[in-house]
Structures are given as structure tokens and as C-alpha cells.
Amino acid sequence: MKELYGFKLSDAALLCEILKDRKGESLTAVFTRFSEKTGKSAGTARNLYYAVQKRAKSDEEFRARFFSGGAPEVMRTEPFKKEEEDMLIEKVAEGKKAGKSVRSVIMELAGGNGKTALRYQNKFRGIMKKDPERVLAACEKAGVKDITARGQDVSGMVSEVQFARVKREINGLISRIAAKKQRENKFLRARVAALEAEVSALRAEMLYKSRNTAAGYFRVQRARRGGSQGE
What we know:
Helix content: over 70%
Strand content: under 5%
Number of helices: 9
Radius of gyration: 36 Å
Order of helices and strands: EEHHHHHHHHH
Largest sheet: 2 strands, antiparallel
Shape: elongated
Structural class: mainly alpha
Low-confidence stretches: 148-159
């Protein structure tokens, strides 16, 4: 088995090691540690956690390999209601207006509970991704203009780990584009040089033929004039 429901086994093994070594840490702290080590989001860590828990529950060999026969505890979550989503968006917008970060607002809403804060945080990010206009409306109502994804400031909405990952991806994309442009420029320069050489050769050939044609023409004319004079 090389993968676990689409996740790499190496990532699953790392998460299991962190879970076994958590020493009273909340799952939020576990997911944060996983993110710091891998550069992947806490949401990915959470989804991987569910995948690991599911496999450990039904696969004895998996439990023996990763948990010494045991299994990680289940983190239960409740689906969000629309009223709860509206409350979350409004509170975040009001908090931003007061100069607070999104994370600090969420932590206040969660009452300092790490599991609840992670739940709020993931839901808010999901709304920002799927329905930014909904967040924009709440922000405009609260008089906030720096929280939307319309090319404005979104600081505090993502973790430093996620920001670093996005930054690496952008830098990698820029590097790939630059490399492609360099290859294209190199090809074009070589092509231009070849065309210039071809044009020079054609010019030389045309000039040679032109001179030879002109010389032949004047020889014929001189020959004709000479014949007429002799007659």
C-alpha cells in the first residue's frame, strides 16, 4: 500500500508519530505541528487524520504498524448551520473593524477551545474560497474593506505556514515561466541568426547573378554596335 485514500503513507506515518507523541496537546496543536513540518495546511492534516482514523478502525495490520495495535481518538464535528455561518462572518467582520486579526476573533468565538477554533477557522476559509461575495457583503456592512479576496489585504486570514507554501508555489511558477521564456528566447535567437544568414546568402547570390546578367547584356550591345559599324 503506497497511499491512504489519496494521501501519502509517509504523511500518514508522520501524523501518527505526532499523535503518539502529543502529550496532552490538542488536535489543533497536532495539526499545526504537522503543517510546520510538511508545509501542508491544517485542513489537509485534519482530513488525513480522519483517513488515518478510518483505516485504523478497520485495519488491524495498519493499527499494528502505526499505532502499536491502538487507534487515534475520533474528533467529532457538527455540521454548520446557515445561522452559525452568518454569525461567524459577521463577528469576523466586526472584529476586523476593531483592528483584530481573523484568528484572534475566531479564538474569542471559540472561547479558547482549540477544536472549536479549528472548526470555525476551516469553515471561514471554506466560505472565503467558495462564496467570497457573502463575506464581502458582511464586510461592506461593517465598513471593512481589507478582508476580501479582491486583490486587497488578506493578512491574518491564512497561517504563516500556508502563506509560505503559497509563496513557494508562486516562486516556483515564476521560475518555470522564466525558464520557459529563456528556452523560447534561445530558440528565437538561433532562428533569427539562421534567417539572417539565409538572407545574406540570398543577397549575395542575387548580386552575383545581377552582375553577370548586366555584364552579358553590355557585351551583346557592344558586339551589335561593332557589327553595325563594320557594315
